[in-house]
Specification:
Layout lengths: L13 E3 L3 E4 L3 E6 L2 E6 L3 H15 L5 H7 L9 H9 L3 E3 L6 H23 L3 H14 L7 H4 L5 H16 L1 H20 L14 H8 L5 H18 L21 H19 L3 H6 L4 H18 L1 H9 L7 H12 L3 H10 L4 H6 L4 H16 L1 H6 L1 H5 L7 H9 L4 H17 L4 H6 L7 H34 L4
Antiparallel strand pairs: 1-5, 2-3, 3-4
Helix pairs in contact: 4-8, 4-10, 5-8, 7-8, 7-10, 7-18, 8-9, 10-18, 11-24, 13-16, 13-21, 13-24, 14-15, 14-18, 16-22, 18-24
This protein binds fe (ii) ion.
Length: 486
């Protein structure tokens, strides 16, 4: 993507916005909304024959001079210095219509289709299912999220995931959350009133916290699409088998206060036990299938790329915190070291045979999207939790890179490929990122028993989320294989 900077070329339908032009003996005086200005010229003849007619022409947005400037015709280049001056003075305006209608209509259509499908499916689960949707919409519409510890008491894995992801959306994409609430309410009406009932009332009014984002047109259909897909998948999972959370912290009883480093080391052991209790990862079963394994590894690298593209966003909320040194510098160093890492992941995807178009069109899977959003919200809400959660983003200290060891099993006869894609893992090793959580936590002198309980419960949830991310990825790949898709 090329990011063009501001210039007079960026106006869509420019015109010189002047109330009047008055001729003085040696200059022109222009009266505008921004005030009265004098524009001079080298000669009186120049004023009469060049400057005045040109300014008059530029007052008309349909004048050919503007088209020549927008086409960057060489003949119009000499006008640019003067146009830049006029632009700096705020005398050029855009009469291109202010209209977010088309975009909002496209979003409304997508939301209507989403609600229709969800309502139809939810109706199969009876009245209680509709009620659950309405209750969820009401919880999401609240003005604040409430304490994290309260959210963690939710027994359903998909609902907890939606609630945690909503904390991210409320701060970072408020209109997406507002639209999801309206979509949920519409789906509930669709389930209750049936296809031909009056279940769709349009988008209606979004909550006050979402209005600016929505009314100013800061959201585009491309942004909301993966959220609709993800929320739709999670909501259907609510009524499926295996919706109940499977992992909880064993540290429910408040113990003694601990230093950060000792707590971090304890947690590594706790999380390893939680993962062992969850059972073998679906990835391990998948790599035993020589047909499925390469597909799973490619999909895993593609998802890793999509997560990495947003990874510095996760760290960003920590940058403005006034942590005591050297913690603050350590966090800033990590941000710098992670910046731009997605290019390694992209190269790995290309080496694995995924085309550039496929990479650009790929969407994050629902749980991968939830993971990156939740990690970002944790960085903003609870830095200690984020520090401890680094084991899920960087891997366990002393452990091996799980995606790399899968690749080794999936492509045993391609050492050249393995050597190439191992390069980024080596980059991570040089910076010793697997030790980053211990590094940060060693700078945290005190963790209260209450915070220990909360952090370890979030980490148990994240362990389950990671476990289910692999399950979802493998199931999706197996379904694609069964349907003969590439
Ligand atoms: Fe890293």
């Amino acid at each position: 993507m090329t990011l063009e900077r501001w210039s007079v070329h960026r106006y869509q339908m420019p015109h010189l916005h002047l109330h009047s032009i008055r001729k003085l003996s040696d200059a022109l005086e222009v009266d505008s909304q921004r005030g009265v200005f004098r524009i001079s010229c080298d000669s009186a003849a120049g004023i009469d024959h060049e400057l005045l007619p040109m300014l008059e022409s530029l007052r008309d947005p349909r004048n050919a001079l503007w088209s020549a400037i927008q086409r960057r015709d060489s003949g119009a280049a000499e006008l640019l210095p003067m146009l830049r001056e006029l632009d700096h003075l705020g005398l050029i305006r855009d009469c291109h219509g202010v209209d977010t209608g088309q975009t909002q209509q496209a979003i409304a259509l997508a939301l209507r289709a989403w609600s229709a499908d969800l309502g139809r499916d939810i109706a199969l689960h009876g009245e209680a299912a509709g009620l659950l949707l309405r209750k969820l919409a009401e919880r999401l519409a609240a003005d604040s999220d409430g304490p994290l510890s309260l959210a963690l008491s939710e027994p359903s894995f998909p609902i907890l995931t939606i609630m945690l992801q909503a904390r991210y959306l409320r701060a970072n994409a408020p209109s997406v959350l507002g639209l999801l609430i309206q979509g949920l309410l519409a789906a509930e009406r669709r389930a209750r009133l049936g296809e031909n009932g009056a279940w769709w009332n349009g988008i209606g009014q979004l909550p006050a916290w979402a209005e600016e984002d929505w009314l100013c047109g800061l959201i585009e259909p491309h942004t909301i699409a993966p959220y609709l897909a993800a929320a739709g998948a999670l909501l259907r999972d609510v009524f499926g088998e295996g919706a109940a959370r499977r992992a909880h912290s064993a540290r429910s009883e408040p113990g003694a206060a601990l230093s950060g480093i000792n707590f971090a080391i304890d947690l590594e052991g706790d999380v390893a036990r939680v993962l062992a209790d969850l059972g073998a990862s679906a990835a391990l079963t998948a790599v035993a299938d020589p047909l499925l394994a390469p597909r799973v590894v490619r999909a895993a690298f593609l998802q890793e790329y999509l997560v990495t593209c947003r990874f510095v966003e996760c760290i960003a909320p920590l940058l403005s915190r006034r942590f005591a040194e050297p913690l603050r510098s350590a966090v800033h160093r990590y941000f710098e070291e992670e910046m731009g890492h997605e290019k390694f992941e992209r190269e790995n995807c290309l080496r694995l045979g995924i085309s550039a178009e496929e990479i650009d069109e790929a969407l994050p899977m629902p749980l991968h999207l939830a993971f990156i959003d939740i990690i970002t919200t944790l960085a903003a809400e609870s830095p200690i939790t984020f520090f401890c959660a680094s084991m899920f983003t960087e891997g366990f200290i002393g452990g091996e890179d799980s995606i790399m060891s899968l690749a080794e099993q999936a492509f045993p006869h391609d050492p050249a490929l393995l050597h190439q894609i191992g390069h980024h893992v080596a980059v991570n090793d040089v910076a010793d990122h697997r030790g980053v959580g211990r590094d940060w936590m060693s700078r945290v002198p005190f963790v209260s028993p209450h915070l220990q309980s909360e952090v370890s419960e979030v980490l148990a949830y994240l362990a389950e989320l990671n476990w289910r991310m692999w399950e979802q990825l493998v199931q999706t790949c197996a379904a694609e294989q069964a349907h003969g898709r590439q």
